[in-house]
Amino acid sequence: MRESRLVTARRKRGLFVTFEGIEGSGKTTQLRLLARRFRRLGVPLLVTRQPGGTPAGARLRRLLLHAGSLDPRAELLLMFADRRQHLTESIEPALAAGTVVLCDRYTDASRAYQGAGRRLGEELVDLLHGSFCGLDPDRTYLFDCPPETGLARVSAARGSRDRIEREALAFHRRVREAYLSRARREPGRFLVLDGTKPVDELAALLVADAGALLGTR
Ligand code: TMP
C-alpha cells in the first residue's frame, strides 16, 4: 500500500528537461518547437530559461549579458544566484505540481562557459551546484555545432553580439569541448544532436525522445 502510494507520487512529479549548446546551436528554436507540440497534446508545461527565468533573474540577465566587464568568479556567482532563485521560485514548485519544465540552459552552461570558457574549472561549478541547487535534469539535449557556424547564425539573426557572444573563438571552442566531454561522462542524461542538421529532422528526434520519456513515467 505504502509502496504503491510512493509509485503514484513519483509518477506525478514533472519532468525536467534542459537545452544546451554554444551560441547559435539551434537549441532555442528546438525548445520552442517541442513546447508547441506538447501544448497541442495538453501537457502541463513551463517554458523558461537561465539566466532570466524570474523577475530578479531578468535583472541579473541584463547585468550578465550587458555589464561592461565582470570578474569571472563574480559572473559565476551571479549565474548561481539566478539559478537558485529560479529553482525555488519556479522550477521546483512546477515539478512538484507535475509540470514538464523545458529550460533553456542550466548548470551545464556554467560548467562549459565559466568552468571551461573562463577556465574556473568544473570542480568549482560542481561544488556550487551541490551546495545551492542539487537538482539534476531528467534529460539534457545538447546541440552541437562548430562555433564558426553558431556565431555566424547569431550575427545573421541579430546583427550584434552580447558580452559573452563577443568572446574569442578559442573561448567558444573550449565551451563546445566542455559540453561534449560532460555529455560523454553522463550518457544516460544527455542526448547529443548535430545542430547543423535540418530543423525538422532535429524536431522529429526530440518529439520521439521526449515523448518516450513522458510515456514511461
Ligand atoms: P542564451 O542567450 O542562450 O539565453 O544564453 C545567455 C548567455 O549566458 C550565453 O552566452 C551563455 C551564458 N551563460 C553562461 O555563461 N553561464 C550560465 O550558467 C548560463 C545559464 C548562461
Quick synopsis:
By secondary structure, the protein is an alpha/beta fold. It has a single domain, classed as Rossmann fold, CATH 3.40.50. It contains nine helices and five strands.
Task: Provide tags for this entry.
217 residues, alpha/beta, Rossmann fold, five-stranded parallel β-sheet, 9 helices, 5 strands, disordered N terminus, binds thymidine-5'-phosphate
What does this structure look like?
By secondary structure, the protein is of the alpha/beta class. The chain has a single domain (15-215), classed as 3-Layer(aba) Sandwich (Rossmann fold), CATH 3.40.50. 60% of the residues lie in helices and 12% in strands. The protein is built from 9 helices and 5 strands.
Going by CATH, the homologous superfamily would be: P-loop containing nucleotide triphosphate hydrolases
Number of domains: 1
How does CATH name the architecture?
3-Layer(aba) Sandwich
What are the secondary-structure elements, in order, as H or E?
HEHEHHEHHEHHEH
Number of strands: 5
Structural class by helix and strand composition = alpha/beta
How would the blueprint of this fold be written?
Blueprint: H1 2-12, E1 16-21, H2 27-40, E2 45-49, H3 55-66, H4 72-96, E3 100-104, H5 107-117, H6 122-133, E4 139-144, H7 147-158, H8 169-185, E5 190-194, H9 199-215
Parallel strand pairs: 1-3, 1-4, 2-3, 4-5
Helix pairs in contact: 2-9, 3-4, 4-6, 5-6, 5-8
Bound molecules: thymidine-5'-phosphate (TMP).
